[in-house]
């Protein structure tokens, strides 16, 4: 029996390897990727490197890059979306490697002196000594949050139940609940500025410790290249899209409906065109999935829809203003300033671009969450009035009005519906596994599917690679099943 079985095993193995290699280039094994952001392009690039030759990318906008989006502002290139990548840690950041290959211009941000630049609501700086005390308390709270998160993770593993609390609940347990304007703006700097949502809703266990910083480091590389951060995505796309006419990236193809079955997928576009493939990888944001811009036929199963609907899509807005001249401090230790207001998150985090673009006379302020969605509904003129009221409190009534203002409106753009995802308290790991799980021939990727670097461009890039691996495994499994049936018939 053993001797008679060995030739059959060798035949199966030979046929399997031969058929998978051949099928990779066939239409039956083709892959459609929806979205040409870093996650979608990363998926396509990984598929190409694995030998998949029939790849089609459908992009709803007229450009490649997704939420890596530059804008020309006052003669300079600014980033409306993703802006930083981190280095200095024990793990090499793949984005740093890509940046080196493309020679992307960056500037290291320095916020070490930020406690000397915190302004009161009605003007004037807080004493640095007082701010340092508040900052020390916030850092101690952060350390407690990390310890508590690790304890909850261990308890969850032992008990088999996902035990979690919000970041705010952890702060309450530690006994350091921010309440004054100064305490709130320092807490905002530690939390909302990273997650783009308030501590009331953010999961502790799936936020602390922040793996992006633990792994890749805290050196903040600010992209200030005229080609934009999206140059990384362009570089990835060039690795496969220019080698053959088979590899297409089609712009202005807003997906309306995805029909899927065991035989494959059919993707319908708003312009009436239709595309078919064996597999589809959906790399749109969680906000777009929640908006029902794309309809699935048949309807996605209830477990999948619940996993999508219960996750959070946050909004992170950078408002740029260019002035006729500088009226703010420049030089070492002045790049960042905080504005403390009784309303948490009201124009709190300011940065000048004199280090990145000397002589540009550009300031930008970061707002998030509810303030972002509120401000997005205002006119540019109304936003300017609010921002200038804050700046005049900080620097005096004599300062000039800006010559230009730029207000991104991420949540109002149907192709994005927000900036990046955030893990809400009460959302379990099991549900997150369902969020990234495939449904038949439909696969899902994006920064929201990467639990380790959730919300970061690094997570989006790595999620694309993981999605490609999943598709390839399915290809191998299906081809193996087909060949085993063929062997049975031969036998």
TrEMBL record:
Signal peptide (UniProt feature, chain positions): 1-23
Cofactor annotation: FAD
Annotated ranges, domain Amine oxidase: 38-472
Binding positions (FAD): 39, 255
Top-rank taxon, per record: Eukaryota
UniProt-listed Gene3D superfamilies: 3.90.660.10, FAD/NAD(P)-binding domain
Gene Ontology MF term list: polyamine oxidase activity
GO biological-process terms attached to the record: polyamine catabolic process
Keyword list, A-Z: Oxidoreductase, Signal
UniProt pathway: Amine and polyamine degradation; spermine degradation
Family the entry assigns: Belongs to the flavin monoamine oxidase family.
Official protein name in the record: Amine oxidase domain-containing protein
Higher taxonomy: Eukaryota, Viridiplantae, Streptophyta, Embryophyta, Tracheophyta
């Amino acid at each position: 029996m053993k001797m008679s079985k060995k030739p059959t095993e060798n035949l199966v193995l030979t046929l399997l390897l031969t058929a998978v290699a051949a099928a990779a280039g066939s239409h039956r094994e083709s892959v459609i990727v929806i979205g040409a952001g870093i996650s979608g392009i990363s998926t396509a690039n990984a598929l190409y490197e694995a030998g998949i030759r029939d790849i089609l990318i459908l992009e709803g906008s007229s450009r490649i890059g997704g939420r890596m989006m530059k804008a020309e502002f006052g003669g300079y290139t600014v980033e409306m979306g993703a802006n930083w990548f981190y280095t200095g840690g024990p793990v090499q950041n793949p984005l740093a490697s890509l940046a080196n290959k493309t020679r992307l211009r960056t500037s290291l941000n320095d916020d070490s002196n930020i406690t000397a630049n915190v302004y009161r609501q009605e003007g004037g700086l807080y004493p640095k000594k007082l701010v340092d005390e508040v900052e020390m308390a916030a850092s101690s709270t952060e350390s407690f949050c990390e310890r508590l998160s690790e304890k909850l993770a261990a308890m969850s593993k032992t008990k088999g139940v996902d035990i979690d609390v919000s970041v705010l609940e952890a702060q309450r347990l530690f006994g350091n609940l921010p309440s004054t304007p100064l305490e709130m703006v320092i807490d905002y700097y530690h939390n909302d500025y990273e997650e783009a949502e308030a501590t009331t809703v953010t999961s502790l266990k799936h936020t602390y410790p922040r793996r992006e910083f633990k792994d890749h480091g805290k050196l903040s590389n600010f992209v200030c290249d005229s080609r934009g951060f999206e140059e990384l995505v362009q570089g990835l796309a060039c690795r496969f899209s220019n080698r053959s006419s088979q590899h297409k990236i089609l712009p202005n193809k807003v997906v309306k409906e995805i029909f899927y079955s065991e035989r494959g997928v059919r993707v319908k576009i708003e312009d009436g065109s239709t595309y078919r493939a064996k597999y589809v990888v959906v790399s749109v944001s969680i906000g777009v999935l929640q908006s029902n811009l794309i309809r699935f036929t048949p309807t996605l199963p209830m477990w999948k829809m619940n996993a999508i609907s219960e996750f959070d899509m946050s909004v992170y807005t950078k408002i740029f203003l260019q002035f006729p001249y500088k009226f703010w401090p420049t030089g070492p230790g002045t790049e960042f300033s905080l504005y403390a207001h009784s309303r948490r998150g009201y124009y709190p985090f300011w940065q000048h671009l004199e280090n990145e673009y000397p002589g540009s006379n550009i300031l930008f302020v970061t707002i998030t969450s509810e303030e972002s969605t509120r401000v997005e509904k205002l006119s540019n003129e109304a936003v300017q009035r609010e921002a200038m009221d804050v700046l005049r409190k900080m620097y005096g009534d004599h300062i000039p009005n800006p010559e230009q203002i730029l207000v991104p409106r991420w949540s109002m753009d149907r192709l994005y519906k927000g900036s990046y995802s955030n893990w809400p308290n009460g959302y379990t790991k099991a549900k997150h596994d369902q969020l990234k799980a495939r449904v038949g021939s439909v696969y899902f990727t994006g920064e929201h599917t990467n639990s380790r670097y959730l919300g970061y461009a690094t997570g989006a890039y790595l999620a694309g690679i993981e999605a490609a691996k999943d598709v390839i495994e399915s290809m191998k499994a299906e081809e193996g099943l087909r060949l085993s049936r063929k062997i049975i018939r031969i036998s």
